[in-house]
Amino acid sequence: MSPWVQEMYDAHGKFLEKLSKNPKLEWSDEALMILFRGIDNLLCEGKFEQVNQDLQDIDLEKLDSTLLVGLLSITFAAKKHLPYREPMTLKLAERLKVLVPDKWERLIKNRC
């Protein structure tokens, strides 16, 4: 697993901890920026095998709907180089059905 994956988990966990203490807290994009930067850097370096492995290593249960949609978005352009993206997308869609049952189809449309 690439270091950015744990960094993303940590940032998201800190946000969730703050949110539990202050439910009116605005959403933090720190974890999303880590996700985008981590994958984008690897894609720009042509490290598709590493991205593919990271997609397999990411625990989708630890991500909220924003991070899940971000994961679909950042990997969309390179999907032909990422064989695990398709099975991940199916799992991700199932997770979104639980998190946002009224929005999941719209959220993944044009990102698969």
Strand content: under 5%
How confident is the prediction overall: mean pLDDT?
90
Question: Which regions contain 5 or more consecutive residues with pLDDT less than 50?
Answer: none
N→C terminal distance: 23 Å
Which structural class do the helices and strands define? mainly alpha
Q: How many DSSP-defined strands?
A: 0
The radius of gyration is: 14 Å
Question: What is the approximate shape?
Answer: globular
Number of individual domains: 1
Main beta sheet strand tally, sense and closure: none
| Helix proportion | 55-70%
Give helix and strand order, one letter per element, not per position.
HHHHHH
Query: With helices defined by DSSP (H or I, 4 residues minimum), what is the helix count?
Result: 6
